[in-house]
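lol so apparently i was supposed to do this last week
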Amino acid sequence: MSVHLYNSLTQQVEPLIPRDDKRIAMYVCGVTPYDFPHMGNARTIVAFDIIRRYLEYRGFQVMYVQNFTDIDDKIINRANEQGVPWQALAERFIAIYFEEMDALNVQRASVYPRATENIDEIISLVQALEEQGYAYAADGDVYFEVRKFARYGELSNRDINDLRSGARVEVSERKRDPLDFALWKRAKPGEPSWESPWGPGRPGWHIECSAMSLKFLGPSFDIHGGGPDLIFPHHENEIAQSEAATDGKMFARYWMHSGFLTINKEKMSKSLGNFFTVREVLQRYAPEVVRYFLTAVHYRSPLDYSDQTLDQAKSAYERLHQGALNMQRVLMAGVQAPEAAPERSAALRTAVDGAEVEFQQAMDDDFNTPRAIAALFNLVSEANKLTGDADFVPDAAALTALSDAHALLLRLAGVVGIVLNPRQEEGGLTEPLMSLLIDLRAQARADKHFALADAIRNRLSEIGVQLEDTPQGTTWRRV
Ligand SMILES: [Zn+2]
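anyway here it is w/ zinc ion bound
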């Protein structure tokens, strides 16, 4: 099977056939950096991180563009409230965004263009639309004339006449039609602005994504993604203005949208106090757990954030993590059975042999992470069954199967960005280091270097770690 994905444009699961052989050109609408990223942002960004990682695992070369809307009403208003320059506000929240997405193990995109760094491209695109009769200037603003674009509404499945009758007609609008949207906005006094053929102003929001995706990826690029709330009007507008400006060339070939994130089963809303920033959640849960929470659900399914769902994610993550540690512990202790008994570890061997195929089949089917992660749990549970048996004495076949299972578990977890060997968590390094010391001590004793073996035990005892020799091998505990 090849990679199949759900295309929001056709509302069908389709095979992914790239524009250019093994290269994938992907654009995802990024954040407006005026505040701390919220869990809804993290959900979308992690969803596309999984997609990108999996495509790379499948051998595609992914050019991943994600923008920053670094000029916008929200940025201007917030900067004025705080009495700071708007650039400084955007810069600060871009830095925070990177810090927090790094914590969630999100791989950096190939490029992060900013609206303010692409003003020339934006102006050229607006000019092209004006020349081709799709846009009109009105008193320093420029609008896209929606009724000129016949396919308007195709992505969101909306009928232009229904939209028009429901549209709000604002007073003092310079638009010809309530559905028309701003490509360029005349500067109000004191606002940041750029020179343009229509006078000083700044870009509307929708046009920046068309300008930057066309600049970095060209027309008919492969995947355009974003949060579910962007389908209308943002993505609909992106399609209209891009295809109008490029003689009707298809803008993006596959449209992908992440599912909604709810908080305690309600829509996330600041005014309801039903709102969580990534920062708040990271104060309560380890980043590996939050990443797991965002990864273990299918990217298109609704995801509910609550103490309960986070705690469930935490215990599921711990089961995987502990499973990996248990395998590691047995592996560090080494072979203890004089004779091989491959039949004992046959079930684990079967699980190892099938796991990657199961994982791939799940991920090929529209990035089905819950099914892919189930294949990882199966590895852990077979390994636990083997090593948890009271009569278990590691033989060579068991250790090979465990070693393969361990490597596969870490590798496949990594494909979806789940970290099973946390870097900062103290316990993450303690286990392998203790196994290493226990191993060295056993080696010293086997080589009859009893003084060295005793020194290892005594020095550990001095720092509060007690070694205990049991028939199953040496264990340790804190005293
Ligand atoms: Zn966008």
